[in-house]
C-alpha cells in the first residue's frame, strides 16, 4: 500500500491504515525510512489516528544519535518515496583536531608547557565524557497462544498490554490463524536490554493462565 502526502489529512489517514498491522514503515525494526516519514509528519497525529499516533510516539522516543545509527529502509510515501540510505558518518569535530595531546617542537618542556598540556588533556577528557551513550534496545515479535477457539482474544490482548515495565513499549498486533478455528496473538514490543528481561516478560504474560497457553518468540532483533 502506498501513502500520499502525510502533510495532508488524507495522507495521514493512509499512513494510519498502513500502520494498522505494522510497528514500523519498513520491516520489524526502525530504519531511515521511519525517520524520513517522521520528519515529514512533523507533529503527533490526533487521537483519531491511533496507529499513526502510536508509531509517531515510538519513533519520538529515540534520541537523535540512535536514529543516525538506523539502517536504510523503503519508504511507503508516493511523493518521493524510495529506498533511504543511512546517514553519512558525522564529520569529525574540529575541536578534536585542535587538541594537541602531547605538544609540539623539540624544545625542552618547562613548567608552563606542562601546565598547558595538562589543561588540554583535561578539556579533551571532559568533552569525551559528555558525549551521549547509546541505549541498547531490541525489537521482539511474540506469539501468544490461547487454549482453544473459545478464548476471548480481545481480552487476552488487553491483558497483555496491561503489563508495564520501565523500558518496555508495546507495538502493533494481529491475529494469525493456526488451525481448527484457533488464532494466536502476534504482538510487537521494543525493550531496553538493560532494563527488561525477555524471560520475565514471557512469564508475566503466562500468568494470565485462563487465557494464555504458551508464549513463543517469533522474531528477535537488536536495534
TrEMBL record:
A single GO molecular function term of this UniProt record: guanyl-nucleotide exchange factor activity
Occurrences of domain Translation elongation factor EF1B beta/delta subunit guanine nucleotide exchange (ranges): 137-223
Alphabetized InterPro entries for the sequence: Arc1-like_N (IPR053836), eEF-1beta-like_sf (IPR036219), EF-1_beta_acid_region_euk (IPR018940), EF1B_bsu/dsu (IPR049720), EF1B_bsu/dsu_GNE (IPR014038), Glutathione-S-Trfase_C_sf (IPR036282), Transl_elong_EF1B/ribsomal_bS6 (IPR014717), Transl_elong_EF1B_B/D_CS (IPR001326)
Signal sequence, start to end: none
Region Disordered, annotated ranges: 76-96
Bias kind Low complexity: ranges: 78-90
Repeat among keywords: no
SMART domains: EF-1_beta_acid (SM01182), EF1_GNE (SM00888)
A Pfam family this chain is assigned to: EF1_GNE
Keywords: Elongation factor, Protein biosynthesis
GO cellular component, one term: eukaryotic translation elongation factor 1 complex
Entry's family note: Belongs to the EF-1-beta/EF-1-delta family.
Name of this protein: Elongation factor 1-beta
Organism encoding this protein: Helicoverpa armigera
Amino acid at each position: 500500500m502506498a501513502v500520499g502526502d502525510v502533510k495532508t489529512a488524507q495522507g495521514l489517514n493512509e499512513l494510519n491504515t498502513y500502520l494498522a498491522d505494522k510497528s514500523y514503515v519498513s520491516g520489524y525494526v526502525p530504519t531511515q525510512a521511519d525517520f524520513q516519514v517522521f520528519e515529514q509528519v512533523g507533529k503527533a497525529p490526533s487521537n483519531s489516528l491511533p496507529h499513526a499516533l502510536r508509531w509517531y510516539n515510538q519513533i519520538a522516543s529515540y534520541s537523535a544519535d540512535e536514529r543516525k545509527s538506523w539502517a536504510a529502509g523503503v519508504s511507503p510515501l508516493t511523493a518521493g518515496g524510495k529506498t533511504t540510505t543511512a546517514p553519512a558518518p558525522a564529520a569529525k569535530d574540529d575541536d578534536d583536531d585542535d587538541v594537541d595531546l602531547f605538544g609540539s617542537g623539540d624544545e625542552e618542556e618547562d613548567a608552563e608547557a606542562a601546565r598547558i598540556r595538562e589543561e588540554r588533556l583535561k578539556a579533551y577528557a571532559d568533552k569525551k565524557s559528555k558525549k551521549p551513550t547509546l541505549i541498547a534496545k531490541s525489537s521482539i515479535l511474540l506469539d501468544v497462544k490461547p487454549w482453544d477457539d473459545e478464548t476471548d482474544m480481545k481480552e487476552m490482548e488487553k491483558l497483555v498490554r496491561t503489563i508495564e515495565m520501565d523500558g518496555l513499549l508495546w507495538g502493533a498486533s494481529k491475529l494469525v490463524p493456526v488451525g481448527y478455528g484457533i488464532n494466536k496473538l502476534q504482538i510487537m514490543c521494543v525493550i531496553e536490554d538493560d532494563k527488561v528481561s525477555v524471560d520475565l516478560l514471557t512469564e508475566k504474560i503466562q500468568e494470565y493462565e485462563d487465557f494464555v497457553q504458551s508464549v513463543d518468540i517469533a522474531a528477535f532483533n537488536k536495534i
